[in-house]
């Protein structure tokens, strides 16, 4: 039982990333009708927002420390971060330690701006073009973004640690009634799951309970009728593109301590997340979230040694096998709508 619970936790962790990226993909497709293959790059840019803020906060200058001597008796030169000299040792080091959570505040405006520029500068010219054209141009954009990041940050993964209080593991088993040391799980992965659940819940609440969200949902169902009511639905859809970019960016920010950011991490998640969207149903927001967590859990169970010993390599193909089975039995996906990508 403890092994099953551990694999469910691992699956929810992976599923959180899949669900957040797939949610953004579905928001863009549902509002603009665009198949955005650059969405994985937005996830990657979010992770590098965390890296960038960490580097900015770590900028330092060199001073002589008379309390430390080298072997010749000369004062040692030490690097002192500007943030520490400005706010003092306690507050400055706390800010450095919490750079990843603080990167959320940094990433939101950055990703909103990137999403706005991407939509206004490129995507809007492909609204009425075939989906194949949209896939090609956004996939090309993803490669360009990837190479730019590689040029400025290098090809190697960049460690981006979580705050000290969330490093290490928690005895999760004790929390749910098991004996001590039976289910040990990393703190930050639990934080990532609850953070993802909060963001997903906030997006659904925004779409359901705000006037802006209701208009957007109406526009997703019948764009022409909403336009005839005198509402500038295109402007609202542009804002939704920015929100989708911000959701992907936040997913990347909080994932940075789990998987050190590298220039190709967006591509690693993109294909899997697009499979999640198709399985959930093109244009279905609940379907994208449901499929994200479902496929994350299945992938986690398929990675168990007991299963791999019977079916070698099953962990690499389980998502695609499930996708084939679901699409053969339910061609529109789990919660797909009639008429979406069926023309």
From TrEMBL:
Q: Which organism is it from?
A: Hoeflea olei
Q: Where are the transmembrane segments?
A: 16-35, 95-114, 190-216, 237-258, 270-298, 310-328
Tell me the protein's name: ABC transporter permease
The cellular location(s) given in this protein's UniProt record come to:
Cell membrane
Domain of life from the UniProt record: Bacteria
Xref: CDD domains: TM_PBP1_LivH_like
For this protein, what is any one GO molecular function term?
Answer: transmembrane transporter activity
Q: Which GO terms describe its biological process?
A: amino acid transport
Q: Which UniProt keywords apply?
A: Amino-acid transport, Cell membrane, Membrane, Transmembrane, Transmembrane helix, Transport
Protein's membrane topology? Multi-pass membrane protein
């Amino acid at each position: 039982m403890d092994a099953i619970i551990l694999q469910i936790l691992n699956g929810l962790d992976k599923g959180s990333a899949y669900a957040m990226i797939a949610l953004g993909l579905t928001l863009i497709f549902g509002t603009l009708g665009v198949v955005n293959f650059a969405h994985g790059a937005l996830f990657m840019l979010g992770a590098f927002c965390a890296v960038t803020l960490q580097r900015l906060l770590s900028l330092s200058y060199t001073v002589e420390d008379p309390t430390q001597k080298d072997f010749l008796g000369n004062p040692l030169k030490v690097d002192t971060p500007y943030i520490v000299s400005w706010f003092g040792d306690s507050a400055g080091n706390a800010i450095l330690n919490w750079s990843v959570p603080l990167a959320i505040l940094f990433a939101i405006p950055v990703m909103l701006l990137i999403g706005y520029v991407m939509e206004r500068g490129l995507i809007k010219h492909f609204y009425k073009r075939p989906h194949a054209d949209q896939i090609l141009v956004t996939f090309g954009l993803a490669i360009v973004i990837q190479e730019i990041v590689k040029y400025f940050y290098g090809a190697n993964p960049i460690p981006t640690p979580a705050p000290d209080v969330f490093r290490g593991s928690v005895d999760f088993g004790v929390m749910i009634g098991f004996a001590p040391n039976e289910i040990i799980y990393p703190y930050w992965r639990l934080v990532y799951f609850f953070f993802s659940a909060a963001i997903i819940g906030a997006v659904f609440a925004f779409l359901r309970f705000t006037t802006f969200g209701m208009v957007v949902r109406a526009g997703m169902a019948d764009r022409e009728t909403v336009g005839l009511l005198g509402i500038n639905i295109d402007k609202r859809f542009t804002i939704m593109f920015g929100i989708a970019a911000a959701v992907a960016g936040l997913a990347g920010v909080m994932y940075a301590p789990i998987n050190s950011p590298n220039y190709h991490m967006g591509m690693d998640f993109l294909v899997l997340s697009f499979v999640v969207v198709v399985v959930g149903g093109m244009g279905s927001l609940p379907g994208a979230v449901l499929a994200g967590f479902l496929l994350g859990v299945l992938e986690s169970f398929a990675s168990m040694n007991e299963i791999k010993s019977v079916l070698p390599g099953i962990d690499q193909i389980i998502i695609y096998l499930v996708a084939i089975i679901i699409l053969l039995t339910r061609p529109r996906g789990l919660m797909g709508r009639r008429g979406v990508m069926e023309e």
